[in-house]
Specification:
mainly alpha; 2% strand; globular
């Protein structure tokens, strides 16, 4: 039971990362590699701030702002510096590696003996791992509602149009450069927030904790889309969270089968590849027709 609770809690915390990448990858149509730099940046700033005596809430906010600054730089490099999309993200990601080392004063920092959001007295009274479920659940609900409200404003609609068709957006008088910068800043701010919360949950920050996390975020998005099919925009935001939880359950099953934690990145890549191929496999193997006939026969 504790492993299931832990998987749900971890899925909720990592869903923040998935939702952040959804804004750039799906809505803005921007393959943003910056996340592999801003995720550990948010963690490094938060953990260092806590060890310097800063309150966990303020330190978490600083982690969000640090990630947002990384996204802002990527946006400026792409829109003003005319650097290609992928290269702009890779440049910032690479730069963040050195910044993280300077922020932490080393390759990792522990939170042993420090107060975090997860060490509040209220959470000590809860069963094991319920602290991540409560904090992760409250945070992802608030962020999902705020993102959904934002996307239904005039500014949010301009943001969506920029991702759908940049030429048409410009013809409508939308400043697409500003929309791109806004999207990258907001998205990487959430990535930094995700890194801040996961570092506090794990009890440490490490300069290399961002390696491969873009695959985890993509897995949350793709699994949610494959599992729940055609959805409205608001439903898709929720599906990212459910996809993140399903992904954690898949990892739990794989680990229970005896695989090493060293294989997690390889397993994550395989899971994502299978999910990406699934729609084509369903078409080629005609699984939809088989399932449809099965449902009709059972209904007779």
């Amino acid at each position: 039971m504790s492993l299931i609770t832990s998987s749900i809690g971890q899925g909720l915390l990592w869903a923040i990362l998935g939702l952040a990448l959804y804004l750039t990858f799906r809505i803005l149509n921007f393959p943003d590699m910056t996340v592999e730099g801003t995720f550990p940046l948010g963690a490094a700033i938060t953990v260092t701030a806590i060890t310097k005596g800063c309150s966990p809430a303020v330190a978490t906010l600083l982690g969000f702002l640090g990630g947002a600054c990384g996204g802002l730089v990527t946006g400026l490099l792409y829109t003003k510096g005319k650097i290609p999309i992928l290269l702009a993200g890779i440049l910032v990601m690479t730069g963040c590696l050195s910044i993280n080392l300077h922020v932490m004063g080393g390759s990792n920092v522990s939170l042993l003996g420090q107060k975090t959001l997860f060490s509040a007295k209220f959470f000590q009274q809860l069963p094991r791992y319920f602290d991540t479920v409560v904090i992760g659940g409250i945070t992802i609900i608030i962020i999902t509602i705020l993102v959904a409200l934002f996307l239904h404003t005039d500014l949010g609609q301009a943001f969506i149009v920029t991702g759908d068709n940049e030429v048409m957006a410009r013809s409508l008088g939308i400043n697409t450069d500003n929309m791109t910068i806004l999207g990258l800043t907001l998205s990487n701010g959430l990535v930094g927030l995700s890194g801040a919360l996961i570092a506090q949950s794990n009890g440490y920050a490490d300069a290399n904790m961002g390696i491969g996390i873009i695959v985890i975020a993509l897995a949350s998005i793709i699994i949610g889309e494959v599992a729940f099919g055609y959805l409205t925009l608001n439903q898709r935001l929720i599906a990212v969270t459910l996809g993140s939880i399903i992904y954690r359950f898949v990892l739990l099953i794989v680990l229970q089968l005896g695989f090493s934690t060293n294989d997690l990145n390889l397993i994550s890549a395989i899971i994502l590849a299978i999910c990406l191929m699934l729609p084509n496999l369903r078409h080629y193997l005609k699984l939809d027709g088989i399932l449809h006939r099965g449902v009709k026969q059972n209904g007779k």
